[in-house]
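Hypothesis: this fold can be encoded by more than one sequence.
Test: take the structure tokens below, design a sequence, compare later.
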């Protein structure tokens, strides 16, 4: 295949990250002999070729049909008719080709008709699709993700009812969480199900902003009885859009949006719709969290694809546009912007691919632990090894989603800026990419929600193991002083700034809640402080400083993780050292800014946040 017109072959960095660290080799080792036989592979090389060929064909599809159709997708409107969405012809043709490639069910287990592809490979496909046409990604992304939840948690009856049509591509799904009055705060959800004598359920309520809401079925998260509240009463239901040729739920509205023109964002109305419980009653939030975590990685890839498209667009334009007798790409400020974009994209890809590799490892390790197909001894080892991957994945997922959301927009805007006046016209693509970038920080949990998840886990981790935290602080101090390699030295400064910021934050929490004085420069005091924090945190009245600074900590933690990935890439491959050096130098000042901002006690915010009951009472009154 030719590199031109193929979004995989024209991108050496993608290939590098997929093959880095022997990722596919390690995954191959986790396949059982039955699975290898079903795939028709008996060596690592064959396994690798299988997925690389598959990804090449998705790359060709993205780099030709999707790219060529993107402008037409923008022109054709979705139509709401009789409670269903009519998808325009160009999008229909995009989805049809994707299904014909067999790419829609890649990660679905072989026993259900899929190919058991590592999620890493499926998500690499998402990057390329997003680079060409984000709307199409929103239409094709709902086959395997939904099918996998049904395969994992649904009983045989449900699996046989719903999976075959998803595997043939006749039906795709959607994920219904958001309601008109409830988005981030899922515990306040009002939709509910009522169990029927025959074991099925009737679902009542309205769902809002549901992507692909007219795909054929929806996984609906709802309370397990009318009036219930909280996360523990949420159950997951699979609800077909039609039953016996009649509507089972309807699409009552399609949103008009600045981006994702070809993706139907639907209001859904469930009025006694027949549904089937997936898994156990009351565990819906747990199941949905699994789907959401994967979806968050997918949104990471959506942002990455968009960044790649914007960088290439900006670079091509800047190389051709001449001002003062030379291309604008050679004028210092534009040159710097382009180099920064490239370094950031490569670094982000490095961590994102590693994160999704860990997600793949966890997935197959879980399966092997359950079926013991690799023998008792190996199973025991896996039980230990998996924890490390799970921990890292949990730590990185909100960081990656946050970065994707916050940075896609900045990169799209930089691309527009580099295009000057043409960037602000509809004739050129940058304004479209800016519009497409706006959603990434909103769905699958807003940036603020990612930051809250990050801060919660960060503080929990530290108070669970204060000694480890204090040791890493001391080590970072020493290394920041002693390291002679310029890139690593910068990295340790970045890490030290982050750890010092955590100490500052903990001091603030202590000041608000516990009596006593501490010296933040003495590690014994820090351990003492953290132990005290562990003893007292449950009774903390005021965690406002942590909530206020969650985004800052999240950004800093992301920079630490990304810098580490850049340093490691530079160590493995000296040709990548220039990106690593640029990344750590570019982002160090952001660390200092965040730390300085965090040091300020913003009393106005604290006062308003603590008076929330008064505001709520006033608005109720
Ligand atoms: C195009 C599109 C597609 C979507 N697809 C789907 C889908 O397929 N399925 C689905 O279920 N939903 C979907 N959504 C909904 C989306 O996930 C929600 O919009 C999102 O989770 C935010 O919820 P909300 O809009 O109710 O905002 P709110 O929760 O009301 O939040 C409003 C603002 O307040 C902030 N905020 C809220 N709580 C806090 C807090 N404690 N601290 C600090 N800040 C806070 C938020 O970050 C946000 O900035 C989609 C939305 C859009 C626009």
């Amino acid at each position: 295949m030719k590199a031109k017109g193929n979004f995989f072959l024209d991108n050496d960095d993608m290939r590098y990250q997929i093959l880095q660290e022997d990722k596919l080799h390690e995954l191959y080792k986790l396949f059982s002999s039955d699975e290898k036989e079903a795939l028709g592979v008996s060596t690592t090389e064959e396994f690798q070729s299988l997925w690389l060929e598959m990804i090449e064909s998705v790359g060709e599809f993205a780099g030709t049909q999707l790219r060529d159709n993107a402008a037409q997708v923008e022109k054709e409107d979705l139509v709401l008719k009789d409670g269903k969405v009519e998808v325009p012809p160009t999008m229909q043709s995009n989805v049809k080709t994707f299904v014909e490639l067999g790419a829609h069910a890649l990660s679905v287990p072989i026993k259900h008709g899929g190919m058991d592809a590592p999620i890493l490979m499926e998500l690499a496909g998402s990057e390329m699709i997003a680079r060409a046409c984000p709307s199409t990604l929103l239409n094709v992304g709902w086959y395997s993700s939904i099918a996998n939840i049904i395969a994992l948690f649904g009983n045989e009856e449900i699996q046989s009812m719903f999976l075959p049509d998803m595997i043939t591509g006749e039906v795709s799904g959607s994920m219904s969480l958001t309601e008109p009055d409830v988005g981030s705060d899922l515990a306040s959800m009002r939709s509910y199900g009522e169990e029927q004598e025959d074991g099925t359920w009737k679902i009542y309520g309205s769902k809002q902003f549901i992507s692909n809401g007219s795909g054929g079925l929806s996984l609906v998260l709802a309370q397990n009885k009318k009036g219930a509240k909280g996360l523990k009463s949420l159950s997951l239901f699979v609800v077909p859009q039609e039953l016996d040729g009649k509507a089972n739920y309807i699409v009552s509205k399609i949103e008009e949006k600045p981006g994702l023109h070809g993706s139907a964002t639907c209001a859904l109305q469930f009025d006694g719709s027949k549904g089937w419980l997936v898994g156990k009653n009351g565990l819906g939030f747990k199941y949905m969290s699994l789907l959401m975590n994967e979806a968050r990685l997918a949104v990471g890839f959506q942002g990455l694809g968009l960044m790649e498209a914007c960088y290439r667009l900006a670079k091509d334009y800047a190389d051709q546009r001449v001002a003062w007798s030379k291309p604008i790409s050679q004028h210092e400020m534009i040159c710097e912007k382009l180099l920064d974009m490239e370094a950031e994209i490569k670094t982000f890809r490095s961590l994102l691919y590693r994160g999704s590799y860990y997600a793949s490892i966890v997935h197959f390790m879980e399966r092997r632990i359950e079926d013991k197909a690799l023998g008792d001894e190996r199973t025991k080892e896996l039980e230990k090894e998996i924890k490390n991957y799970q921990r890292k994945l949990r730590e990185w997922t909100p960081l990656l989603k946050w970065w994707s959301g916050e940075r896609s927009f900045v990169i799209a805007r930089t691309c527009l800026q580099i295009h000057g006046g043409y960037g602000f016209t509809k004739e050129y693509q940058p304004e479209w990419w800016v519009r497409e970038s706006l959603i990434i920080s909103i769905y699958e949990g807003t940036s603020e929600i990612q930051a809250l998840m990050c801060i919660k886990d960060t503080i929990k981790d530290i108070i669970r193991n204060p000694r480890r935290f204090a040791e890493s602080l001391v080590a970072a101090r020493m290394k920041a002083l002693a390291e002679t390699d310029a890139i690593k030295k910068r990295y340790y400064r970045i890490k030290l700034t982050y750890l010092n910021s955590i100490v500052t934050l903990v001091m603030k929490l202590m000041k608000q809640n516990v009596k006593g004085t501490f010296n933040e420069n003495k590690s014994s005091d820090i351990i003492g402080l953290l132990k005290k924090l562990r003893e007292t945190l449950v009774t903390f009245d005021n965690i406002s400083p942590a909530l206020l600074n969650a985004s800052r900590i999240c950004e800093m933690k992301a920079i630490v993780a990304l810098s580490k990935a850049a340093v490691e890439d530079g160590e493995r491959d000296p040709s990548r050292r220039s990106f690593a050096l640029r990344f750590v130098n570019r982002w160090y000042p952001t660390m200092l800014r965040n730390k300085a901002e965090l040091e300020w006690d913003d009393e106005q915010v604290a006062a308003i946040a603590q008076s929330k009951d008064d505001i709520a009472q006033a608005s109720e009154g």
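Residues 376-418 form the longest helix (43 residues). Residues 615-621 have pLDDT under 50 and may be disordered.
Hypothesis status: open.
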